[in-house]
Amino acid sequence: MICHKLQDKLQQELAKMKIFFMFMGPIKSLLKIQKYRAEIKLNPRYNRIYARGHIYWCGALNDGLDRGNQPYYCPIGWQRWSFYVTENFYEKFNGWCICYHGTKFSSGLSILLSGLKPAEIYAHGAGIYVTPSINYACHPRYAEVKLIQSSAQEKFFKSGEYVQFVLECRVHPNNINNIASETLKAGSTEIDSNITNDIIEWVINHQNKTVVDFNDPESSIVCTGLLTRVTDDHPGLLRESQWWYKSHLCNDPICCLLDIDRHYLQQKNQRRDT
Fold first, then answer.
1. 126 and 97 in contact (C-beta within 8 Å)?
2. Which of 92, 99, 256 is nearest to 184 (CA)?
3. What is the reported pLDDT for 14?
4. Separation of alpha carbons 40 and 68, rounded Å
5. Residues 6+ apart with CB under 8 A from 54
6. What's the total number of domains in the chain?
């Protein structure tokens, strides 16, 4: 009986992820691409909800696992959907640091199936740009904000809610070419209470490749999961997002994907504070 319940739970989790992938592109396209690319393998037993009453901790995590020379902080308010990477994961990736990469929904499947491209425009040197801060990764310059509308998507979320996602990755410290400051013109505004603005961007060795394939056993970076955040109202109204308004934030859909007019959002945010 317990076994059947566990199997049902796993099937439900897999179904949810299939619906989530619809945000990134048609399922038919996903299946077509997978004929030529490695399959996205889910690992539901390591799915997590990071919040009080679920998985939660303060400060840098100290659980005995070796995650390299960089601290790992709780991504509060996010849910992790785990990918199967390899057997004996903690042996192979012992000492690899956790970091995040925000992206557009339209680019999600391509990245998951193919890998990450080095930045086309870079401030701290050539390479793949990631961050140890979930709060920095989810700025709409990096992580698209999307309003839930279609009935198919409502099976996973509720209509009227907003969703974002970022990639959770692992990188060996030797592949971090540079640790540098933020590039969103936040200045002295605090972005993350755990991580100072001058060490919030990491530049990863792209191995002189146009795409760093996650399936390559010699890859400098691997994707271990998706982190999603669902909010009843726009995430720009959250307390942890207030720094957005003191950084670069625009209405250009090529730049900042807010899924709402920036001026209206800012007015709504100001009314909320009064």
1. no
2. 256
3. 47
4. 26
5. 48
6. 1
- Return the bridge partners of 82, or none: 225
Range of the domain at 149: 2-273
The strand ranges marked E within the chain are 48-49, 79-82, 97-102, 128-130, 146-147, 162-171, 176-180, 201-204, 221-231
> Whose CA is closest to 76, among 50, 39, 40?
50
CA-CA distance, 32 to 55, in Å (whole number)? Answer: 36
The letter for the amino acid at 57 is W
For residue 31, the number of C-alpha atoms closer than 13 Å in the C-beta half-sphere is 4
Look at residue 13 in the predicted model and tell me its pLDDT.
53
| Contact between residue 123 and residue 180 where contact means Cβ atoms under 8 Å apart | yes
Distances in Å between the alpha carbon of 79 and those of 4, 86, 108, 163? 24, 21, 17, 11
Tokens of 180: 């540098």
Cα 129 to chain centroid, rounded = 13
- Looking at the chain, the whole-number percentage of residues with pLDDT higher than 70 is 80
The overall average pLDDT reported for the chain is 85
What secondary structure letter does DSSP report for 192? B
Residue 50 per-residue DSSP state:
B
Predicted confidence at residue 144, as pLDDT, reads 93
Measured in whole angstroms, the distance separating CA 177 from the mean position of its chain's CA atoms is 21
Q: What is the model's pLDDT at position 1?
A: 34
